[in-house]
């Protein structure tokens, strides 16, 4: 079997993978040259070959920083409303060095005005020569998309998502019985930080860790790229997302977004066998098929189950009350959940 040099392997890599971020990892490269070229190469030889190939394709990582200001200038010209800034400092030797930069696309700034006012901030570590951290800020659109269990974990999630105080306390009692140390830990970090019941603002159905994880996964391929290539990767990703969601929202014919329609349909299905009693002009009592009851005040968009209050989406009880009074469902949902707002989010 032939033995290949790092130079030969690097040449093959460059010919086959024009975009370094999409190329194979070192172990996969070692297998590829063996299978495709019948060449035996050590792991370190493949590592050096890949490093050389990436260097040849991209040039030194340092060069990317010299191109950054020009790239951001052109980016702002091509994307009106985009905000970008670079912070640098001069070291003892009189050399200007990059510290950090800020970038927000104009389309994102305009689209965020149509979202629920929840901002998720998260950091992800970068690869490459200079490492660093990419700090991202994101939200969730009216279709529940990023604008990037078992046992104890399931009980903690249920407690965090509980709408009513009695449900929250019930889950907390179960957590304490299962693992008292976990209950103590949750109490120390502050219930307002992790539970919907004690949270003073509106968190809707937004689980911040989920959004951060989705965005981090989307950025994996670009995180080891030089800074300009990383920004180009992000720009291309955002363009794809906006284009796909713009088309999806334009095709949708319902008054509410696709995902909100699904949530409301599921909530209504759970009301099978329930009965509605009118209390006053806007107040109703819904009696479930097992005898439990909930009170709805439709003009205030409130229900004793608290789902309507927190989510700004009518619960099954509220929809029964609306049917009884002849009130259209679309007048009860938060404006962010309407198809019109969804389309406006991605209009640019």
UniProtKB/TrEMBL annotation:
It comes from the Eukaryota. SMART domains: ZnF_PMZ (SM00575). This is (rape) hypothetical protein. Keywords: Metal-binding, Zinc, Zinc-finger. Residues 293-326 form the SWIM-type domain. GO terms for molecular function: zinc ion binding. Pfam families: SWIM. It comes from Brassica napus (Rape). InterPro entries: Znf_PMZ, Znf_SWIM.
């Amino acid at each position: 079997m032939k033995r290949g040099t790092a130079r030969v392997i690097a040449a093959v890599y460059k010919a086959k993978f024009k975009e370094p971020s999409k190329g194979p990892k070192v172990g996969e490269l070692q297998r590829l040259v063996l299978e495709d070229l019948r060449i035996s190469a050590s792991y370190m030889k493949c590592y050096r070959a890949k490093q050389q190939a990436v260097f040849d394709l991209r040039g030194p990582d340092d060069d990317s920083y010299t191109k950054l200001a020009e790239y951001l200038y052109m980016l702002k010209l091509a994307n009106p409303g985009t905000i970008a800034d670079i912070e640098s400092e001069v070291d003892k030797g009189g050399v200007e060095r990059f510290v950090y930069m800020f970038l927000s696309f104009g389309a994102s700034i305009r689209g965020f005005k149509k979202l629920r006012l929840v901002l998720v901030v998260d950091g992800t570590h970068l690869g490459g020569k200079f490492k660093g951290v990419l700090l991202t800020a994101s939200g969730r659109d009216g279709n529940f998309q990023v604008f990037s269990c078992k046992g104890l974990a399931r009980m903690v999630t249920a407690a965090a998502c509980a709408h009513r105080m009695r449900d929250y306390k019930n889950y907390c009692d179960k957590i304490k019985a299962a693992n008292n140390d976990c209950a103590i830990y949750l109490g120390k970090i502050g219930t307002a930080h992790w539970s919907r019941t004690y949270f003073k603002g509106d968190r809707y159905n937004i689980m911040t860790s989920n959004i951060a994880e989705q965005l981090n996964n989307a950025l994996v391929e670009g995180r080891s790229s030089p800074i300009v290539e990383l920004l180009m990767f992000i720009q291309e990703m955002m363009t794809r997302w906006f284009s796909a969601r713009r088309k999806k929202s334009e095709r949708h014919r319902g008054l509410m977004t696709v995902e909100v329609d699904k949530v409301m349909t599921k909530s209504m299905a759970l009301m099978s066998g329930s009965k509605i009693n009118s209390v006053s002009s806007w107040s109703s009592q819904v009696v479930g098929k097992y005898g439990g009851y909930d009170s709805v005040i439709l003009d205030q968009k409130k229900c004793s189950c608290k789902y309507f209050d927190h989510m700004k989406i009518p619960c099954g009880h509220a929809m029964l009350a609306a049917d009884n009074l002849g009130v259209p469902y679309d007048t009860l949902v938060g404006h962010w959940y309407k198809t019109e707002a969804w389309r406006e989010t991605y209009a640019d």
